[in-house]
Request: fold
Amino acid sequence: MVKHIFITGGVVSSLGKGLTSAAIGMLLENRGLRVSMQKLDPYINVDPGTMSPYQHGEVYVTDDGAETDLDLGHYERFTHAKLTKHSNYTTGKIYSEVIRKERKGDYLGRTVQVIPHITDEIRNAILNAVAPDTDVAICEIGGTVGDIESLPFLEAVRQLALAREFDDCLFVHLTLLPYLKASGEMKTKPTQQSVSKLREIGVQPHILICRTEKPLMEEMREKISLFCNVPKRCVIEERDVDFSIYEVPVNLQHQGLDALIAEKLRLPAAPKNENYEWREMLEKIRTPKTTTEIAVVGKYIQLNDAYKSIYESLTHAGVANDAKIKLRKIAAEDVETLGAAQTLAGVRGILVPGGFGDRGVLGKILATRYARENRIPFLGLCLGMQCAVIEFARNVLNIPRAHSSEFDTRTPDPVIDFMEEQRNMSDKGGNMRLGAYLCTLKNGTRAHAAYDAAEVWERHRHRYEFNNKYRERFEQAGMVVSGVNVERNLVEVVEIPDHPFFIGVQFHPEFKSRPLEPHPLFREFVRASISAEMSLQPAIH
Ligand code: GLN
Reply:
């Protein structure tokens, strides 16, 4: 019988609940258990696909094409749990299902209500996410306890636990212990109040994980235990990490959190796993042999969460190359106003990420040109690849009005275009190419060498594609198509062989990089940035 862990958060948002959930998943996997991971989000959007990255951060895409919360990225980076469209439910997704059933007449004349209809649907959603053979299903409940909108979720998990044996379900509550500088004190009151809110709705947490800036002293632990009705040894400290989020599982393990969970859920005993490779990876992050500066030229650069998986992938690639990545985060619009030389001079690699809408596109195109002409290693992801194609068309093929039909519907030369079969789909989101597609790589290309494979699966999230009408002209002028989706005849990877490293991919490799298995394209991009012989000519633009 599968065991359940429910993870809630209190006091403030952005406490790192996703990271903590992922870390717990990793520690349980280390004990030989199979975990499944799920996030419940209390907002009303059906999924984050239509939200601005400024609102929500990155939209993470699963193999089966679900557009999900970025916490799922943490789950995949820390565990081997298989994530699907069932791994992320929002209030909107739950309600749409209930309303669909109501219209169909499934409720047989009854009044449809939050309890039991919405809560039943949430319970189904939780059970749907449990993959076969799972030992422990970890479910993170988004939002903060005390919010009106998270109530149905908390009520549903309360009911779920009620229906099970007492050692089948575990409630872990993550809170904040603020430190007041003026009085030099750590305060427990917000934690007490948050736990009391939870108890009001019938949930008594078994384990409290307390985010702190300073060490959690014995008397504080006692106080929290007493007021929150949680045994002292179940009050766990999660102090701010020194240099990397990948320290979190190690720190939690150090305090015996995994053993505590195993004991509470009566999970089989397991030999202690020293996480040797993981610790070695942390050591490499802490003491890199070299540094390389990489520019990320994006539209949502002010918000770190908007490019979460990209930054993490660069960190992984840094570890693989024994290098620290110094990031130069550049707003694409600054490249337009200040110029490429002004903003990019001195960087050893340029990465242009994905995006939607035309704000900043010109800046991205200028950055791409600067990388190509100055022989600076370049990696273009999705829109970044499309910009590389547009730039090459304009400046190498001499097609001055070349553009993507996303940004100029009347361009005479749509080198990036909407595919015919997508035209009739009207819902935003309905016409996107989403999820994993097979990409066949051409022998002898840099992409093929990086992957060391002829076929790879990569995840997509876009509407527009390379326009095959122009393919021959590109290839004749030195931009090689090194990866294609054979089934649909779509260009997936382009590269310039006569350049230290210049690759654009229509997909999102950042969703598949892991700390111990860096993505080959990121790894080779960073390697090139460390060793590339770049042009010494003065900058041109
Ligand atoms: N806006 C582009 C498209 O829809 C690129 C999308 C992306 O970068 N994710 O094709």
User: Anything to note?
Assistant: Residues 296 and 398 are 27 Å apart (CA to CA). Residues 354-356, 382-383, 406, 461-464 surround glutamine (CB under 6 Å). DSSP finds 19 helices and 23 strands in the chain. The chain has a mean pLDDT of 93.
